[in-house]
């Protein structure tokens, strides 16, 4: 009975790692769509988001049943309740990638990103990939060190977010209000994507160390 219970816990972990992989793929495709004006890639991100929603629902059902039926002890309960929150954050990260893709679709065939911001957006996409990779690795290995690295990586996304605003607020900006609004939202989507990854990694630290979530590294 306990062996089946442990297998059920591991299955939830496996689903979370799969969500992390799908989220990374979604933001990679969304970034490509944004930079290249690739409508097909944008539509793929939008259509595949339902898969993330489905896995989130499955984790919710499985974790809830285990809590109700197996009476988990403190460490196991912490793991299950954290899994629910982690899945919710991953689902939201998928939504943010979808928002980026929808921006491409909204403006197609026009390009969303002017030349002077292509480098910043490309860097944001690269940082998003790095933080997702770190998150998946920390989740798979239950590594506090890797989780802490992801928290540090978020600082680079914050820097890029500020850089975007500095460029758009410069007197040299010539692309108008509509473009500025689009890009402000896009920048915010990337920033929030990284923020959710930080939340997940703080949850991982909480699971591993038992320290209250509020005391984990910020």
What labels would you give this structure?
218 residues; Methane Monooxygenase Hydroxylase, Chain G, domain 1; 0% strand; elongated
List the helices and strands and how they pair.
Layout: H1 2-36, H2 39-70, H3 74-107, H4 115-141, H5 144-168, H6 176-209
Helix pairs in contact: 1-2, 1-3, 1-4, 2-3, 3-6, 4-5, 4-6, 5-6
Summarize the amount of helix as a percent range.
over 70%
Q: Any idea of the CATH topology?
A: Methane Monooxygenase Hydroxylase, Chain G, domain 1
Name given to the CATH architecture: Up-down Bundle
Q: Runs with pLDDT <50, length 5+? A: none
For this structure, what is the CATH class?
Mainly Alpha
Beta-strand portion reads under 5%
Question: Helix and strand string, N-terminal first?
Answer: HHHHHH
How many helical stretches? Answer: 6
Name of the CATH homologous superfamily: Phosphate transport system protein phou homolog 2, domain 2
Question: What does this protein structure show overall?
Answer:
- It is built from 6 helices and no strands.
- With 218 residues, the protein is mostly helical.
- It has a single domain (2-215), classed as Phosphate transport system protein phou homolog 2, domain 2 (Methane Monooxygenase Hydroxylase, Chain G, domain 1, Up-down Bundle).
- It is elongated, with a radius of gyration of 19 Å.
């Amino acid at each position: 009975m306990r062996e089946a219970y442990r297998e059920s816990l591991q299955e939830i972990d496996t689903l979370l790692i799969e969500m992390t992989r799908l989220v990374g793929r979604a933001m990679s495709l969304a970034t490509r769509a944004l930079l290249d004006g690739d409508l097909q890639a944008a539509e793929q991100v939008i259509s595949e988001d339902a898969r993330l929603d489905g896995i989130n629902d499955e984790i919710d059902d499985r974790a809830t049943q285990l809590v109700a039926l197996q009476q988990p002890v403190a460490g196991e309960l912490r793991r299950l309740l954290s899994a629910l929150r982690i899945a919710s954050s991953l689902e939201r990260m998928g939504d943010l990638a979808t928002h980026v893709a929808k921006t491409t679709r909204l403006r197609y065939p026009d390009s969303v990103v002017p030349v002077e911001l292509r480098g910043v957006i490309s860097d944001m996409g690269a940082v998003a990939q790095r933080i997702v990779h770190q998150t998946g690795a920390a989740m798979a290995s239950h590594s506090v060190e890797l989780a802490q690295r992801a928290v540090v990586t978020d600082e680079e996304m914050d820097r890029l977010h500020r850089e975007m605003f500095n460029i758009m607020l410069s007197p040299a900006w010539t692309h108008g209000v509509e473009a500025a609004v689009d890009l402000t939202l896009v920048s915010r989507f990337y920033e929030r994507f990284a923020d959710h990854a930080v939340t997940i990694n703080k949850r991982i630290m909480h699971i591993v160390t038992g320290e209250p979530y509020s005391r984990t590294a910020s």
